[in-house]
Amino acid sequence: MPPEAPVSSSFSPVTPAPPAPLGPRLDALWSFDRTYCFLNHGSFGSCPRAVRAAYVAAQERLESRPIELLGRRIRELLAPSRARVGEFLGMSPGSFGFVTNATEGINSVLRSLEFRPGDELLTTSHVYNAVRNAMKFRARQCGAAYVECPLELPIPSPEDMVAAIAAAITPRTRLAVIDQVSSATALVFPIHRIAALCRERGVELLVDAAHVPGMLPVDVESLGCAYWTGNLHKWCCAPKGTAVLWVAPERRHDVKPVNISHFLDDGLAEEFDWQGTRDMAAWMTAGAAIDFMGEFGWDRVRDHNHRMATWAQRMLCERWQLDPVSPLDGTLLGSMCTVPVPPEIRTRFSRWEDFQETLYRSHRIEVPVIDFGGRWHVRPSAQVYNTADQYELLAQAVLEESGA
Predict the structure, then answer these.
(1) Domains in the chain, start-ordered, CATH in brackets?
(2) Tell me, what's the pLDDT at 161?
(3) What dihedral angle (degrees, nearest 10) is formed by the CA atoms of 198, 159, 121, 178?
(4) What is the Cβ-side half-sphere exposure of residue 26, based on CA atoms within 13 angstroms?
(5) What share of the chain is helix, strand, coil (3-state, %, to 5)?
(6) Is residue 5 scored above 70 in pLDDT?
């Protein structure tokens, strides 16, 4: 990541050149409908053709001898993928379980912990809405309080994030659920510092790292958190429904999957590996997905995507003549950026959903529109198959819809 710098409201009138592609026509490695401009890898991108072939092969293998392979040998079949995922994310093989997505991982932790009346479950205003709902539901069940720390945009620096969270922690704070990369705002939180703060205050930290695997380099066991969950079907391009939940050693006996099944108390990995009959082929393919993207070089992939997201933020802010929500040098960005749209858009569309649909139907651009803090934003992603002209199309489409 670039060095930290404060937000600037004045920027060069000439946007620097975008990063060069990692290769020619990389989009051909995916199955995209090329009549659309796909700028939403952050939600879940298309699975690459080669990874999908490995997934289908795993399904075929399971179907060839379903009782033997699924019923008696599934741990053996998951072992290579578990080892590769653990190596990639800095987790020992027995320290994590497979889940279908980060939301399921968070629900597993929330349902496993006991909260008392008066306890506080803390997060920030950048929380993913599904996680917000899960926290509210669990707090309501236990008579605990859901607390949301406001973090208003723009955010000048990581220090501002840490200071706001520190001010929100009270003696009643039992658990903090903090994004490592926010879905709503695409901002990268200084999770090492937040983990240290929580340890100092005696608060357990659950890291929502839905976007982290493949976007940021990470060594989970060095973070110092109690729980960490991330998706592999986003930036690692694994099949849909592939994610992990890591738990610190002192808590592994306590955390159970949402679906309690045959292997209760046999160990974290054993309990999560079998939660009932499901398609295990996606989990078996996680290692193949990591290796496929690794053929480009993971450092190159992360660096390219970060520089493209940083360039896109600057270019869009320049085209729309709007201030950024985070430093223009990309200090707080990974492989996505969230950029406010011109205020004229709000006068032409009564709902953000209508604006997003118009971008999709009329301009054939797939990009999320985010309503954050009462202001509308777009959140384009940067994956190796994206090209600079796609973000230029977005810039022009928004200008046209704003009446410029």
Answers:
(1) 51-292 (3.40.640.10), 297-402 (3.90.1150.170)
(2) 97
(3) -90
(4) 16
(5) 45, 15, 40
(6) no
